[in-house]
Design brief:
Layout (H helix, E strand, L loop, with lengths): L1 E8 L2 E9 L2 E7 L16 E11 L4 E9 L4 E10 L4 E2 L11 E2 L5 E5 L9 E8 L2 E15 L6 E9 L8 E7 L6 E3 L4 E8 L5 E3 L1 E4 L4 E5 L6 E10 H4 L1 E8 L4 E8 L5 E6 L8 E7 L4
Antiparallel strand pairs: 1-2, 2-3, 3-13, 4-12, 5-11, 5-13, 6-9, 6-11, 6-12, 7-8, 10-11, 14-15, 15-16, 15-21, 17-18, 18-19, 19-20, 20-23, 21-22
Length: 290
């Protein structure tokens, strides 16, 4: 994490930090606005996180998770995800809606105002209260946002309110950009995707299931039916390579794409349609050590 900026009022200072790895994370204490000051006397209990948390989509979806600590509960009113290219900050702002942030349903990939329901949210120690999502200390609320374009950068924002007498209130917003269908190995450094095609022309994407930090498998048609297993071995101390081993229990067309997210280097292995999957024992696969 690296400090971005610090805000002080009297003897109280706030430092905003961002962590951008496979998980993007922003932590903030109670204040009025992170992008610009809200006019004096407006929304004394409100804080707004927006424009300070950006992430690059790794796949077509990402998971937002709000966690709360401190006392009392945190109330989240509005949440949005918008393409960075469409995100602007208006000259003036208030605490209503998304001011001072120009975000509308026409530009947002995801927009939640909790008017009456919290559909799609996974709640643990959180509940809907009067048009707000209330998150108790130690609780969390998460949702998966779809419709993202891999490689594009998005802005996440949320408005929230809390007790003005509590200076220890903390909201953590994390964004997990990993594609749930992909396999991430070696601490998330290597991403493996599998696509398939049958003799009848049906196509699809394999669903990944991790087993250990360096091994996992894909299923295509049934979660109980393993189709392809993959292992990434760190052999940097032997031949300065990462090795790729894979085996299959199928004769459909399979394309395995391995991407080193640290360097951008990729490699693809293909199994022809109608051919029993031949073992892959590539000890010279990726020259991307360390």
């Amino acid at each position: 994490m690296k400090p971005v900026t610090a805000y002080c009022a009297g003897l109280v200072c706030l430092t905003l930090t961002l962590t951008l790895t496979n998980t993007a994370e922003a932590r903030l204490l109670r204040r009025r606005s992170l992008d610009r000051a809200i006019p004096s006397g407006t929304c004394p209990l409100g804080s707004f996180l927006g424009g300070d948390l950006r992430f690059t989509a790794d796949g077509p979806s990402a998971t937002l998770k709000f966690a709360a600590s401190g006392d009392p509960l945190q109330q989240i009113d509005d949440v949005f995800v918008v393409d960075e290219a469409l995100y602007t900050v208006t000259p003036e702002g208030s605490c209503n809606g998304f001011d001072p942030f120009d975000v509308t349903s026409g530009t947002a990939v995801f927009l939640e105002r909790f008017d009456s329901e919290a559909n799609g949210w996974s709640l643990a120690g959180a509940r809907l209260v009067g048009g707000s999502l209330a998150v108790d200390p130690g609780g969390s609320a998460s949702i998966t946002v779809s419709g993202l374009q891999p490689g594009r950068t998005y802005v996440v924002g949320a408005s929230w309110f809390t007790d003005p007498d509590e200076s220890n209130n903390l909201i953590t917003l994390s964004v997990d950009t990993r594609d749930p269908k992909a396999l991430y190995l070696s601490g998330g450094r290597f991403r493996i995707d599998a696509t398939w095609r049958t003799a009848k022309g049906a196509t699809g994407t394999g669903q990944a299931v991790p087993l250990t930090d360096d091994t996992g498998y894909f299923w295509f048609f049934d979660p109980a039916n393993v189709e392809v297993t993959v292992k990434v071995i760190d052999a940097c101390s032997l031949n300065h390579r990462y090795w790729i081993f894979a085996g299959g229990l199928t004769n459909v067309r399979v394309d395995l794409r391995i991407a080193d997210t640290a360097t951008g280097v990729t490699k693809t292995y293909s199994n022809p349609l109608g051919t029993s999957f031949k073992p892959i024992l590539d000890t010279g696969a990726l020259a991307t050590c360390p």
